[in-house]
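Hi F.,

I've been meaning to write this up properly since the lab meeting, where we talked about keeping a consistent format for the predictions we share between groups. The idea is simple: the sequence comes first, exactly as it goes in, then the structure tokens exactly as they come out, then a line or two of notes. No screenshots and no reformatting. I'm using this chain as the first example so we have something concrete to point to.
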Amino acid sequence: ASFGTQRMLNKQDLMNAQQYYELVSIAQPNYKWTSEELRLLSRGESTDWQDAVTQNGQYQNYNFSISGGKNDIQHFLGVDWYDQKGTIKNSSFNKLTVRYNMDAKLNKWLRYGVRFNVIESKLMNINEEADSGYGTMFSAISSQPTAPIYTEDGEYFDGFLNTRANPVAIVDLLDKATLKSRFVGSAYIEIEPIKNLKLRSDNGGELVFYKVNTYEDGRMGQHYTAGGHANVMSNKKRYWQTENTATYSFDINKEHQLSAMAGFSASRTDYEEVTADSKKLSSILKYYNLQGAEEHGPNSSYAVPSSLVSFYGRFNYNFSNRYLATLTMRGDGSSRFAPGHRWGFFPSLALAWRASEESFIKENAPVISNLKLRISAGKLGNQNIGDFAYAPTIALGGASANYILGNNLVTGSVQTSISNPELTWEKANQLDLGIDFGLFNNRIAGTIEAYYKRTTDLLWEVPLPLESGFGTSLTNIGKIDNKGIEFTLNTVNISTKDFLWTTAFMISYNNNKIKELYDGKQDVNKTLFVGRPIGQFYLLKSEGIWQTNEAAEAAKYNAQPGDRKILDAKKDYVINGEDRDFCGVSTPKYYGSFTNTFSYKGIDLTAFFTFAGGHKINNSLNRYLNSFNVWGNMSENYYKYYWRQDRPNNKYPAPRVGSAYANGDGTDANLQKGDYLRLRNLEIGYSLPKNVIRNIKASNIRVYFSVQNLFTATEFTGFDVESSDNTNPYPNARSFIGGISLNF
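Output, unedited:
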């Protein structure tokens, strides 16, 4: 059992109402303030929208498991309950998991077993991912601090500019429930009809029911439908898989061991979804009475199947436990590719030498307890695309599908995507070199692994000419090289009767480069470039702020002192796409982790760090917080360091309406280093002495306390350096957790 509390990380430092009023008055002297805003300003008050919508979250988790059996049958039953009250008000998540495993041996030649999982979960009132630009946290940081939460008559204030929603109304009135039921089961049987020949069949399936009920009250703000909006989305996924293998192992003599395996597997996924949408309906019945709404639609439904069939074989050879070889061959057929192009063949070969088993190393280098050299080469395949992407799709509706039939306007169907009858597997040839080592009875142990991978027939959405009538086409194009190295190290630093200190370290470095595109092109829409890595930022370069002594030069660019200065690479006094340059990549060049574990008698302490670096992040929050915008708040940092004549600096542009590139869009002004070091988990525990717990027949009782995300060292100023969306994220949290573990 564990219990804890959570606090939001990286609350943004924003301007208060008086600071915001000052800047708006400078930039827009004729701005019309609402009576509610003037009333709040006259009181010297300010609305902190972040505080208004967040809270300290709570966390609890209970896990119970029991296992046992006899020599011929083993059972395991586990039940887990997780419940979390979120850091955004009225958000929550809970999950119940039940697991059962059974393995049995009926006799010497027959084994069988089952696995069964049931998972039920419910997520409440998280709208960040589905309502980008209007989600709770983005509304909280972009709403003007001069706006009160409520009007004088107690209604939610709705005088926001740019159709912003009232953040408090969102957390109070939004009713969004995401329900998921997942059933996973499998069974296997293994037969050994003759010595060393094993026949095994694994068969399983998954059934997932997923439903999202959403009701948005019209009082939440201008962005939302007056009279209310309800939506119900329900989908079901059925998946089954069968995997059947025959393995034969035999020894030629004491030094030569061989094994061969042949197998067949098949899987199929059936997915169907239905969505119903209604507007202007009862706020009491919400999404339970869609038929009672005044407006209906758009409604939709669809179903799609996909399948994968594989044949494979593997041959292993072991000579004297020193020289190892594995040859693998597999053929995969995927329904996601065009007929005639569905099969891919992927062979591989792996060789290894356990050098530490050689007598000359055992006799001359006793400090070496393990030394293994590895090399492997093979071909991989990727089918991670949508279903029926090779076929043209047709959809009902759209303005282009309207036509006149007699005196009636009729809606027809139009083709929405182009076909590609040549679509096939993305392929990658990979070479791996590795060393496993251990020194001083493995007190120092680790691996060094280098790899080189060339990907061909890359699956990519290629832009099409406008006259084609379509935007893009999924196509096999180009070549990409990936190469890197990974290093792991595990050490036992101190080991005595009472004290133990161990360390685990891992770092991975990767570099990718596009070697070739298609039709001789050197770039695709200025997003992919030959000779450059994927995720390249190609932007205009910001050179600070135009200063007073540069007024004449600024005027040549239709700018004035206080505006953002952009590098004119061509020196032609015109800023356009031709002035762009490469400004870094979005993917980390390296990442890793570092763990130290200490134990003294019954006390244990673990510190787990993660890190990454060599990349940049487009902090999209900065386009709102570090430039002037009349419709929303800005950072306190902007208030302190914006340009003005008596405070000339190169940090932020002056508060001015209509200034070009003020918010940094299209430039590198909002790029920040993504390097970070995070103490992800710090945990201290105490296990009660055996003589204390012996009387209650317990094998172990441990109490512990942990802090997650205790600190993060980074120059990034957004909500979370690891978030994929810094405009509209659910805020990461620092968690304080205490718990107890009982074993009998």
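Notes:
The CA atoms of residues 73 and 104 lie 4 Å apart.
The first helix runs from residue 17 to 27.

If this format works for you, I'll send the rest the same way.

G.
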